[in-house]
From TrEMBL, chain A:
Pfam family, one: Peripla_BP_5
Domain of life: Bacteria
Lineage of source species: Bacteria, Pseudomonadati, Pseudomonadota, Alphaproteobacteria, Hyphomicrobiales
UniProt entry keywords in alphabetical sequence: Signal
InterPro entries, alphabetized: AmiC_PBP1, Leu_Ile_Val-bd, Peripla_BP_I, TAT_signal
Protein name stated in the entry: Urea transport system substrate-binding protein
Gene3D superfamilies with a match to the protein in the record: 3.40.50.2300
Signal peptide: 1-30
TrEMBL record, chain B:
Entry keyword annotation includes Membrane: yes
Location(s) in or outside the cell: Cell membrane
Keywords: Amino-acid transport, Cell membrane, Membrane, Transmembrane, Transmembrane helix, Transport
Family of the protein in this entry: Belongs to the binding-protein-dependent transport system permease family. LivHM subfamily.
Species of provenance: Rhizobium herbae
TM region(s), chain numbering: 51-76, 88-106, 147-168, 199-219, 231-250, 270-294
Protein name: Urea transport system permease protein
Length: 416, 297
């Protein structure tokens, strides 16, 4: 592409106009726009993943505005940059709540950033909408969790691996931090309940990508299935090493809880073909609603090859849950949103989702996908209906014995 | 046992691959080149880009990456490093700055992303390189399944090490380099063009890093920050082996690789890494100048 001076000026003018557009928009909407926050990392190591989530939120808001807004008022998003740093997240959360007087923020991706902003939301009485699947063990009245908790990824997965795949010996492997360790805890219970056993529970440093020793251990362990809670770019090196050491997904499949369409695209589909992942949403879900969602997302980000995945879908539908809650209670305060969102149901691209009246997590449909040679999954098993989120399932929480209710966490049960 | 030793050898060869270039720039020239990891990164991106745009295989990317990073190294030496010889801390800061510049350049697609132009293969996202099918999987050797790609890395590392040894010890240019390592002023007094030889040495060290990058791209993820952790490992190897000693670097990378593999097999990877750092600290405490060193400068 060759630029002459005039064209350069034109491009620069368009670019600056584009930058100024959100500001213009807010002025056009006058004083009655409803402000919400979008707090994701726009810079730093996590920005690749988090910008996509921010796009999911922006797209939902754009669609809501195109359809007439909320309570007849347009929605304006105040975007802040968490800069991949939990401390920055907490500063920006304070700014959004105190300076911009915003009561609803969509944001955070890692558990570290969510934990950093949590006290601010609780003290200042604002609501956080959090879309990433996480380890549970949290019961905040100020957070709506739209991603999966361990029981929604594992409760159908492990019995299915044991019964349908006929696997008896699990090798559990993960990155060394809280999410994989909690997932392992829940898995072990389920594995034992299903009458199988686990032969190892091993961890590799977060972000570490030298898998030679681990894969060789898997090979020697006698395990017949690998349960992977590995996160981030380590995933790619793991699947590659797995194939390079001559292990085949047919004999010793990797069953993952984090590996999504994004990682599959980055590693090259041939390395993952035949392996499994458990998620409530897959890009391959064959419904008109999902096809339309993928098309709209690709148009929105202007990338015809963009992929959609669980957290992105959750980032998108949580905005609609918020809209319905606001419209139900007719007020923007955190208390009104909390009251309005309990039991709220929405037809998301991946199917029906419902906010649980007790713990503000979402009812989701567990699905198991097998990765194909084209980088997409084939859904091989799905629950007939969404199941109840149990954030304390690792500690014995069941549907009839809830630890986290609308009154908050029952700490006595946690100890017992 | 054979496969554990093989893994150790493989870990050692990867350490050596990164450290080889450093052994030359840091060891020989006394420049703490923090941008060395970014040279590895650039090499990996050369593999990505040549795969996408030239449809070239990984093998072809090796010489290509060597040339690209060597030229880039030459440029950095001419513009920045040349003015800072003998000022160890200043080179550290300056090359660290260069490292950040290079990372951001790749992330922002050399500024093109500001104009809404996206070059496939650049940018902040994760990239991957297609590996030829004969380098995937394993082959059998004396009752053990040997990882083909890791064997390939070991072979390339051995070839590069031999080439470096040959250049340093069997050519007149190498003799000049070694003279400069011992005493740059005396070498200059004997008629060696110190500036020119230094520039060439720096370019050669950078080129080796570029080849390392191509090899890494085959089994690790390629992204703008990938070099930062590698440069730490590289320095660890060079310091343990003894600054300025090619033999020391080879031996220490093999040693640390095997220790890493043996401890990791016996316990786990996290402990293994701690043990490796422990060994490095011990070596520096007992022999501050590294396992192999000689007096110079």
């Amino acid at each position: 592409m060759v630029f002459n001076r005039r064209e350069f000026l034109k491009t620069a003018a368009t670019a600056s106009a584009a930058l100024a557009l959100p500001a213009l928009g807010s002025r056009a909407f006058a004083a009655d726009a409803i402000k919400v926050g979008a707090l994701y990392s726009q810079t730093g190591g996590l920005s690749v993943a988090e910008k996509l989530l921010a796009n999911g939120v922006m797209m939902a808001v754009a669609e809501i505005n195109a359809a007439g807004g909320v309570l007849g008022r347009p929605v304006e998003v105040v975007v802040e940059d968490g800069a991949s740093d939990p401390k920055t997240f907490s500063e920006k959360a304070s700014k959004l709540i105190l300076k911009d007087k915003i009561s609803t923020v969509f944001g955070c991706h890692t558990s570290a950033s969510r934990k950093a902003v949590l006290p601010i939301f609780e003290r200042r009485g604002a609501m956080l909408f959090y879309q990433t699947h996480y380890e549970g063990f949290e019961c905040s009245r100020n957070v709506v969790y739209s991603g999966a908790v361990p029981n929604q990824q594992l409760s159908n997965y492990i019995p299915w691996i044991v019964e349908k795949l006929g696997k008896k010996k699990f090798f559990i492997v993960g990155s060394n931090y809280v999410y994989p360790r909690e997932m392992a805890k829940v898995s072990k219970k389920l594995i034992e309940a299903a009458g199988a056993e686990w032969v190892a529970d091993e961890y590799l440093e977060l972000g570490h990508s030298e898998w030679a020793v681990m894969v060789s251990k898997i090979k020697e362990s006698g395990a017949d299935v690998v349960l992977s809670n590995v996160v981030g770019d380590s995933i790619i090196a793991f699947y590659r090493e797995f194939k390079n050491q001559g292990l085949s997904q047919e004999v010793l499949p990797i069953c993952a809880t984090v590996t999504s369409e994004i990682e599959i695209a980055a590693m090259g589909a041939e390395y993952a073909a035949g392996s499994y992942t458990s998620f409530p949403y897959f890009m391959s879900i064959d419904t008109p609603a999902n096809k339309s969602f993928i098309d709209r997302f690709r148009t929105f980000v202007n990338d015809p090859k963009a992929v959609t995945y669980h957290s992105l879908e959750a980032a998108y539908f949580q905005v609609f849950l918020w809209k319905q809650a606001v419209e139900k209670s007719g007020d923007l305060s955190a208390d009104a949103i909390r009251a309005g969102i309990r039991g709220q149901t929405y037809e998301a691209p991946g199917g029906k989702v419902t906010t649980d009246p007790d713990n503000l997590h979402c009812w989701l449909t567990p699905r198991i996908g097998q990765w194909q040679a084209d980088g997409q999954s084939k859904v091989v098993n799905a629950y007939p209906a969404p199941i109840k989120p149990l954030p304390y399932s690792a500690y014995g929480e069941t549907e009839s014995n809830l630890f986290c209710t609308s009154n908050g966490l029952d700490a006595a049960k946690l100890k017992g | 046992m054979l496969d554990i030793l093989f893994i150790g050898l493989s870990l050692g060869s990867i350490l050596l691959l990164v450290a080889l270039g450093l052994a030359i720039t840091y060891g020989a020239m006394g420049v703490i080149n923090m941008a060395h990891g970014e040279m590895v990164m650039i090499g990996a991106y050369v593999a990505v880009l040549s795969g996408i745009w030239l449809k070239a295989s990984l093998l072809l990317a090796i010489p290509l990456a060597f040339v690209v990073t060597a030229l880039l190294g030459l440029l950095i030496e001419r513009v920045v490093v040349r003015r800072l010889y003998g000022r160890l801390l200043d080179t550290l800061l300056a090359t660290w700055g260069i490292a950040i510049l290079l990372q951001q350049a790749v992330r922002l697609e050399f500024g093109l992303s500001f104009f809404g132009i996206h070059v496939e293969g650049l940018g902040a996202g994760l990239q991957n390189v297609a590996v030829p099918s004969y380098l995937q999987g394993t082959f059998r050797l004396a009752s053990a399944d040997i990882n083909a790609y890791r064997t390939f890395i070991i072979a390339v590392t051995a070839a590069l090490t031999l080439m470096t040894w040959f250049i340093l010890y069997r050519t007149s240019a190498g003799m000049q380099v070694r003279a400069i390592i011992r005493n740059p002023k005396m070498a200059g007094a004997c008629g060696i063009d110190v500036k020119r030889v230094n520039a060439m040495t720096f370019a050669f060290g950078s080129g080796l890093a570029g080849v390392a990058g191509v090899m890494m791209s085959g089994f690790k993820t390629v992204f703008p920050d990938m070099g930062t952790t590698m440069v730490v490992d590289g320095f660890m190897v060079v310091v343990t082996g003894g600054v300025g000693s090619l033999f020391g670097t080879i031996l220490s990378s093999g040693l640390l690789g095997e220790i890493n593999a043996l401890v990791a097999i016996g316990t786990n990877d996290i402990l293994a890494r701690a043990v490796v750092f422990g060994v490095v600290i011990l070596v520096i405490l007992v022999k501050p100048s590294g396992l192999f060193s000689f007096k110079g400068r």
